[in-house]
Each structure stands twice: as structure tokens, then as C-alpha cells.
Amino acid sequence: MHTKLAYACVDVPNAVITFAQNDPNPFRDKTYITYTVDDDVYLSAMVYDLQGKLVEKLLDNVERKMGRHEREIVFNAPGYAQQGLYNIILIAYPINDQSVDLSKAIVKTQLVK
Q1: How far apart are CA 13 and CA 4, in angstroms?
Q2: Given the DSSP bridges, would you call strands 84-94 and 17-23 parallel, antiparallel or unpaired?
Q3: Residues of the chain with pLDDT under 70
Q4: Where exactly are the structural domains of the chain?
Q5: What is the pLDDT of residue 3?
Q6: pTM for the whole thing?
């Protein structure tokens, strides 16, 4: 049985990414990221370990339309990945709203083996 570690998202003024969460969490081999963006954006998604080392780039400046994106991003934990905590960082550059430079979201996740 999987237990959700966190449900809440913190509202940030002028944020373009208004929701980001992965499921399942904790996970064994892969997890899916669901997110919502309030503008058309160029989106990047990277996975970092707790030492700040880049583990994997999931998306690199890919155009995404405004709205909710269900389980669209997949993190397949590589075989060399160690059990532990990881940060999945989403960075969105708005296309239509030039008043916002960028928006970030951090999804905390746990790999168990």
C-alpha cells in the first residue's frame, strides 16, 4: 500500500505552475508527475538527488498548453539510483504573460528498493 507523503501546494503570487505532484510516492521503479500551468509555457523538468547532483532531465524547454496535465511526465528511476529522497524540479517560462519571468515547482519524492 502506498501512503501519500504530501498533498498541499503552497500558493505563490504570480506563479504559472499552480499544482505539481507525483504518484505513487514513495515509488519503486517509476513515478508519474501531474501538474497544472496557468499559461502556455516552455517547461523543463529535472531530477536532483539531495546533494544537488542532476540525476536525469525529464523535459528540456518543451512547449505545453495551459491546463492540467495528468501523469504526463514519467521518472523511471535508473538502475544506479539509490534508495532515498529526490527533488523533481519543474521550471516554466510563460509564453503569453511577459510579466512573469519564470515559475518553479519542487516535487519531493522517495525511491524505495
Answers
A1: 26
A2: unpaired
A3: 1-15
A4: 17-111
A5: 42
A6: 0.82
